Recover the amino acids of this structure.
């Protein structure tokens, strides 16, 4: 999966490549817009 | 998944959710469900959802999916659900993580303090989710009995089990957020 950067619920930047430096990642995609 | 977060950390993994909602909406969701991991905003799905191949073009939102990545970025597990309820159990994902043999991650289990949110007009309150999911379970159990087609019967039985998992998670979340037993409308696993 290619790298991406998004913002979390506190508007902080979150980058996949940085997260992977800390170990494995479980990405959960869900529909939202409830 | 949120309630089993410690099992993920012990296997060297953290979790992040990705959704089309805004950060403000996600903040409300994190508080409501006392999530120990972040929810990332990807409105339009261009940055992560579409590149991951889990975009629902008809619904203009992410398909329900779980992707496990090794620290080197290698994808080791993928589950894409057929609808919003369709998710694998934790066990299946944890088995995929076991195969990576990673050292535990030192991360807080509950980094976000829980505050009771103010429900918006569209919000379904968490206790009500139990009523809803019990209805789903009963309906699917009835469909399984009445179905003459093996595939339909298996799908109905599978969906009933998914509803049971939602009910168990709802009960656990109610206990966590309220600090007390469920009020009789949720189910305690």
């Amino acid at each position: 999966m290619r790298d991406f950067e998004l913002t979390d619920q506190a508007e902080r930047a979150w980058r996949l490549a940085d997260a992977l430096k800390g170990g494995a990642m479980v990405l959960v995609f869900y529909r939202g817009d409830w | 998944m949120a309630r089993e977060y410690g099992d993920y950390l012990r296997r060297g993994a953290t979790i992040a959710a990705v959704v089309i909602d805004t950060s403000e909406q996600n903040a409300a969701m994190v508080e409501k469900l006392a999530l120990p991991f972040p929810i990332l905003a990807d409105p339009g799905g261009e940055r992560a959802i579409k590149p991951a191949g889990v975009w629902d073009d008809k619904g203009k939102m992410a398909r329900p999916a779980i992707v496990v990545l090794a620290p080197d970025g290698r994808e080791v597990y993928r589950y894409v659900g057929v609808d919003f309820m369709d998710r694998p159990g934790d066990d299946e994902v944890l088995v995929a993580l076991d195969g990576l043999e990673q050292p535990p991650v030192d991360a807080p289990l509950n980094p976000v303090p829980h505050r009771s949110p103010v429900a918006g007009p569209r919000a379904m309150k968490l206790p009500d989710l139990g009523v809803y999911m019990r209805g789903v379970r009963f309906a699917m159990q009835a469909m399984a009995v009445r179905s003459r087609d093996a595939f339909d019967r298996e799908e109905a039985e599978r969906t009933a089990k998914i509803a049971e998992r939602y009910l168990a998670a709802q009960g656990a979340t109610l206990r966590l957020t309220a600090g007390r037993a469920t009020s009789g409308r949720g189910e305690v696993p």
